[in-house]
Amino acid sequence: MERKKTRRKTRVIPGFGLSAGVTLTMLSLIVIIPLASLVVYTAQMDFPEFIRTITRARVLASFKVSFLTALTASAVNAVMGMILAWVLVRYQFPGKRLLDGMIELPFALPTAVAGIALASLTTDQGWIGSIFAGWGIKIAYTRIGITIALIFIGIPFVVRSVQPVLEKMDSSYEEAAGVLGAGRARIFWKVIFPEVKPALFTGFGLAFARCLGEYGSVVFIAGNKPYYTEITPLIIMSELQEYDYASATAIALVMLAAAFLILLAMSLIQSGNRRILKGGR
Fold first, then answer.
1. More confident of the two residues 91 and 27
2. 47, 85, 178, 194: which has the fewest Cβ within 10 Å?
3. What is the Cα–Cα distance from 61 to 46, expressed in whole angstroms?
4. What is the pLDDT of residue 275?
5. What is the mean pLDDT of the chain?
6. Region 98-106: what's the mean pLDDT?
7. What backbone torsions phi and psi does residue 227 show, to the nearest 5 degrees?
8. Taken in order 259, 262, 265, 267, is the CA torsion positive or negative?
9. Is residue 2 pLDDT above 60, yes or no?
């Protein structure tokens, strides 16, 4: 009998032990230890004090401003990001590469620079703000201005999540649906959208989580009026400037928990959509 020779699989990356060790070390240094410090500082106050800190009227008002503007901006980004990704994938036009590169601009641009630029454009004397001021609409130093700033920093998450899915989609399904008599709207909702939906939810969740914690691009355009345009990251910065680290970390812990729950919910929705799609096939 001939002996079956078993070939040892060669891997580019070293063995599991070394790879896992490096991964866990980097994850601990970059993510786990900094986040654990929030819990350590918050543990300096007892539970009733923690509740009093995060339920102060000014803090609750900042939560409302941050969550409402982040949700509105993320919803707008979901729609506009889908349209932008569709245009970039399905059409050829002059300047397409330039537009595709500009999608990454909010990632590369310092947030403070973006905030100053948006504030100067949307004040009553700015190019955009002066147009709306003539109709009695104020943009800068209102929640509208905050939402615009969050749309600016959140749009790349949706576009870059949806774009690869559209690029990999097989157009034969759309053609078959068209041959069978389906209209464009029906083709989109029944053929295209089910494939794009998990990626769209991912982009929405990432944009929402980023918008909740955004500070630099918002603080200049918000006006920082207590109970109206004061965002939660500004409250945290104020507490840090007063050396009240326990209160700052308590408020930050709430925002961290909210961002984690949002991303967890998006992950669960994605998993459910994948199972539905696999079951349908």
1. 91
2. 47
3. 23
4. 66
5. 83
6. 88
7. 70, 0
8. negative
9. no
Average the pLDDT over 235-246 and give the result: 87
Tell me, yes or no, if the pTM score tops 0.85.
no
Token pair belonging to 159: 């576009």
**Residue recorded with tokens 């408020």:** 251
Structure tokens, 82: 């889908």
* Side chain identity at residue 242, one-letter code: E
Spatial distance between the Cα atoms of 143 and 149, rounded to a whole number of angstroms: 10
Residue type, 125: Q
Place 155 in a pLDDT band, splitting at 50, 70 and 90: very high
| % of the chain residues with pLDDT over 70 | 87
**For the chain, first and last CA: distance in Å?**
44
Which amino acid belongs to residue 72? Answer: T
Residues whose CB is less than 8 angstroms from the CB of residue 72 and which lie 6 or more positions away in sequence, other chains included: 147, 150
